[in-house]
Every structure is written in C-alpha cells, then in structure tokens.
Amino acid sequence: MTKKTSVPQAPKRRLSWNDPGVRALIYQVLILSIVGLGVWYLVSNTLHNLAIRNISTGFDFLHREAGFAIGESVIDYTPADTYGRAIWVGILNTLRVSVIGIIAATLFGTLLGIARLSKNWLVSRVASTYIEVMRNIPLLLQLFFWYAIITEVLPGPRTALNPIPGVFLSNRGLKLPALQGDALDWMVAGLALAIVAIILLGHWAKKRQEATGVIFPLVRAAIGLLIVLPVAGWLVSGASLSLEMPVMKGFNFSGGISLSPEFAALLAGLVIYTSAFVAEVVRSGIQSVSRGQWEAAEAIGLPRGRLLRLVILPQALRVIIPPMTSQYLNLTKNSSLAVAVGYPDIVSVVNTTLNQTGQAIEGILIIMAAYLTVSLSISIFMNWYNKRIALVER
C-alpha cells in the first residue's frame, strides 16, 4: 500500500500590526482618506465662498460672445465670436510658437553642440561663450531685450530693411511673400505625401542595407520626392498659383505674410535660450560614445560629416533623447511668458476672458488642462521614440 503524503497548508494570515503588509495597507488608507478630506474641504469651501459672492460657476460662458479682438490668429476670428473660439485661438497660437521653437532650437542647438566639440579653437570658444552667456540670463529679460531691439532699434515701415527682394524687416515685424491660389492645398498635400514616402523609404532602405549591405541613396531620393510630389500637386490643380508680394500702402505694408514683433521676439527668445541647453545635451550625448567608435569609423575612411551622421549621432541619441524631452517641455511651458511681450497665447487670452467674465477658477483650469495635454503629448511621443531606438539585448 502506498502512503498518502499530506500537503502542508500555508498558515492563515492574521491581522496584526507586526505584519508589514497590514501596516502598509493601513497607511495607504489613511493617506487616501486625508487627501480625500483635503479635496472635499477645498471644493466645498470654494463653492461656499462663490455662493456668498453670487459668482456663478461652470463653463457656460464659453458660448457667450467674447467682444474683444485678438492681434493675430491661426484661424479666422472676430470679436463677435464666442469665448470658446477665442480660447481655441490662444491654444493654436501657443502650439504655433512651440512647434516652430522646438524645431528651430533642435537644429540650432545641435549645431552649437557639435561646434563646441570642434577642433577649431575659435569655433569651440565662440560656441562655449554663447552657451554659458545665454544659459545664465533669465528668459524673461531676453524677451524684453529682443522686443526692444525689434520695436526700438529697427526702422519704420517706410525705411524698412530689404535684405532680399520681397522681404521687409521693420519695427512692425517681418513681411514675407505669400503663395496664393487653389494649387496651394494640393501642394501641401503633395508635401505631406512626400514626407510619408520618405519615412517608408528610409525604413525599407535600412532593412535592405542590413540584408544586402548595399547603401540606398536616401538623401537624393528624399530631395527628389520633396520636389516632384508638390510640383505634381501643382500640375494636377491646374497650376493656379501666384506669389503675393508685400506692398507699401499708407503707413504699413499690405499683402504677403506678416510676423508680428511680439511673435518674432517671443520666438527669438525661446530659441536662443533653449538652444543653449540643447547644445549641452547634444555635447554630452556625443561625448558618451566611446573613443573606439570614432577610431573605427576613421580607420575605414569615413569623412567627419558622415562619421557623425552614420556612427556617432545614432548612438548618442540614446543618451540625448531623455534630457531633450525635458527641454521640449520647458520650451512649451516657457511660452507662457508671451504675455510679457503682448503675444496672444493661451495665457493672455484666458486672462482677458476671466477679467471680463469673472470665471477665474474655470479660466485657470482651462490653462492647466491645455498645458497638461500638450506636455503629456510631447512626453508620450518622446518616450515612444526613446523605446524605439533603445538597444535590445539578445
């Protein structure tokens, strides 16, 4: 006969203060209770004070007529539009300066970071001086400086600087030629299609090179797509496109594209300030690549430009991306200083709205939600890209 073996049962867990799990659960419940009570007190006290002062709450004011003008906007806007549309204009203005600023600061900062590591003594010292000076001057002071340069130093419209035909720089801002016509939408669609095609082509070229070792001329193909597809869109639309040049009428220019002094000062300040930090991020990323990688690339005869583009920068990206994400977030949040130079961003528009409606809490919540949404979107995208380029262990 076989003996039955008894399986030892786990001892029953008793509720005891000496049990670390029980203590952790009790602490968490207490902390959540305290936080919940604090939130309840703040909300109830706020609603009580608003009721005493006969101040209505809610977001119904967004559907009322705004009644104030906005100096510049990405979409059509008039004072007869609602507060909701005015706030949307402010959000788009913030996104406009943030996106352009991020692209410009990345390009300029990357060049500065590479220049600081240059073997040329003069180039290296100039880049180092620029970085140290700009990083240690507060951004708000830089915004005031650039706004004063544009509005006080530059000449008036009648004597505007004309460095290139059709381009005028004055204390009223920058005037540029503008494309007009039905073909413009088709050309933009062609440009977007070219960008998508370049991304897919780059992915295919990389797989092909890994499999066969043959390098595909991606740069020349990309340039060709960026030219051919927009031109094809222009031809498909019937070639209805014209170039509108700025023309002096009265006391200011008419026609073309206008960049206001406020937008120019804000963009210049953000790019010049942030690019100094981006340069340090790029420099540290390049220096993190081991010297052996440089020597191996030089041993096979790669010129310095291709060495940086094909060997060093792809490896440095793994170090660059995380701190670069912080710089992008800082630039986006620093755009809230636009109110100091009069650019109508989300903060400026909401400030005007809450002064007219008295909905201060709702206005602040809208600003917080707008910046939170934009910042989280940037973080999600950069974290995705960081995981995509991370080394995969085998």
From TrEMBL:
<dbReference type="GO" id="GO:0006865">
    <property type="term" value="P:amino acid transport"/>
</dbReference>
<feature type="transmembrane region" description="Helical">
    <location>
        <begin position="21"/>
        <end position="43"/>
    </location>
</feature>
<dbReference type="InterPro" id="IPR043429">
    <property type="entry name" value="ArtM/GltK/GlnP/TcyL/YhdX-like"/>
</dbReference>
<keyword id="KW-0472">Membrane</keyword>
<dbReference type="GO" id="GO:0022857">
    <property type="term" value="F:transmembrane transporter activity"/>
</dbReference>
<feature type="transmembrane region" description="Helical">
    <location>
        <begin position="217"/>
        <end position="243"/>
    </location>
</feature>
<keyword id="KW-0029">Amino-acid transport</keyword>
<keyword id="KW-1003">Cell membrane</keyword>
<feature type="transmembrane region" description="Helical">
    <location>
        <begin position="364"/>
        <end position="385"/>
    </location>
</feature>
<dbReference type="InterPro" id="IPR010065">
    <property type="entry name" value="AA_ABC_transptr_permease_3TM"/>
</dbReference>
<keyword id="KW-0813">Transport</keyword>
<dbReference type="Pfam" id="PF00528">
    <property type="entry name" value="BPD_transp_1"/>
</dbReference>
<feature type="transmembrane region" description="Helical">
    <location>
        <begin position="186"/>
        <end position="205"/>
    </location>
</feature>
<keyword id="KW-0812">Transmembrane</keyword>
<dbReference type="InterPro" id="IPR000515">
    <property type="entry name" value="MetI-like"/>
</dbReference>
<feature type="transmembrane region" description="Helical">
    <location>
        <begin position="86"/>
        <end position="112"/>
    </location>
</feature>
<feature type="transmembrane region" description="Helical">
    <location>
        <begin position="133"/>
        <end position="150"/>
    </location>
</feature>
<dbReference type="InterPro" id="IPR035906">
    <property type="entry name" value="MetI-like_sf"/>
</dbReference>
<keyword id="KW-1133">Transmembrane helix</keyword>
<dbReference type="GO" id="GO:0043190">
    <property type="term" value="C:ATP-binding cassette (ABC) transporter complex"/>
</dbReference>
<comment type="similarity">
    <text>Belongs to the binding-protein-dependent transport system permease family. HisMQ subfamily.</text>
</comment>
<feature type="domain" description="ABC transmembrane type-1">
    <location>
        <begin position="91"/>
        <end position="382"/>
    </location>
</feature>
<protein>
    <submittedName>
        <fullName>Amino acid ABC transporter permease</fullName>
    </submittedName>
</protein>
